[in-house]
Design a protein that fits this description.
Length: about 210
C-alpha cells in the first residue's frame, strides 16, 4: 500500500524523505535541506512529547496516535476484545490516510520526516530517501539539549521512541525502518556534522535527479 504512484502525473519537484533514530538531528537537517531547496519542510506526524505521553492528548495528532496504538495491540494496549475485521479496517484506514497525506506533501516537494515516506514514495522519481543515525550517547545528548530536558529523560525517550517508531512501521507497512536497504543515503551524525549532513543530502539529491 504505497499510494497510487503509477496513476499520478510525473513529479517535477524534488522530495527528500528522512527517517531518524531519536536525536540524530532530523529536525535541524531537514529544515536546512528544505531551505536550500526553497521548498516546504513537513515534520513527523507524532512528536516526541506525544510518544512519551506528556503532551496533550486532545488533539488531532493525539487522537490518531491513540488509534495507531490501538491497532498495534500487544504492549500498546491490546485489542480489547474487538473483532479482527474492525481492527483490520482501522489499520487499512490509517495506512490510506497516511498515504494520501504523504503524496500531498510530495506534490508540494521538499522534505518529509518520518511517515514511512521511504515506502510510500519508493517508486517516485526525483526522490531521495535518507536515514539519519548515530551513537546512542550522542543522540541522547543532542536530544536533551534541543528539547531542554535532562539527559535521563532524553535517554528514556530514546529507548521508547526508537522502539515505538520502528514498531509502527513494522505493523502498518511491514518494514523495519532501522534497516538500511530502502535508503539512498545513510548518515551517521555522530561522525558527520549536521550542516555537512544537510549539504551531503542536497548534493545527493541533485545527483540522483540529474
Amino acid at each position: 500500500m504505497t499510494g497510487p504512484a503509477t496513476s499520478r502525473t510525473p513529479p517535477d519537484k524534488p522530495v527528500v524523505t528522512i527517517f531518524e533514530n531519536y536525536g540524530a538531528g532530523a529536525e535541524y537537517v531537514g529544515r536546512k535541506v528544505a531551505e536550500a531547496l526553497g521548498l516546504p519542510f513537513h515534520a513527523q506526524a507524532f512528536s516526541s512529547e506525544q510518544i512519551e505521553g506528556s503532551a496533550e492528548a486532545a488533539t488531532e495528532e493525539g487522537a490518531m496516535l491513540a488509534q495507531v496504538f490501538s491497532v498495534m495491540g500487544g504492549a500498546y494496549g491490546g485489542f480489547g476484545g474487538r473483532e479482527v475485521a474492525t481492527t483490520q479496517r482501522q489499520k487499512y484506514e490509517l495506512i490510506m490516510d497516511n498515504n494520501r497525506r504523504v503524496w500531498q506533501f510530495a506534490d508540494e516537494g521538499g522534505v518529509i520526516v518520518g511517515r514511512n515516506g521511504a515506502v510510500v514514495l519508493a517508486e517516485r522519481p526525483n526522490t531521495l530517501h535518507v536515514l539519519l543515525t548515530g551513537s546512542v550517547e550522542d543522540r541522547v545528548a543532542r536530544a536533551a539539549e534541543e528539547a531542554g530536558i535532562t539527559a535521563e529523560r532524553a535517554a528514556a525517550r530514546q529507548q521508547k521512541e526508537d522502539q515505538v517508531r520502528a514498531d509502527m512501521s513494522i505493523v502498518l507497512y511491514g518494514w523495519d525502518p532501522r534497516l538500511p536497504d530502502r535508503y539512498d543515503l545513510v548518515i551517521n551524525t555522530s561522525r558527520i556534522a549536521l550542516d555537512a549532513a544537510a549539504a551531503a543530502i542536497v548534493d545527493a539529491l541533485r545527483t540522483k535527479v540529474d
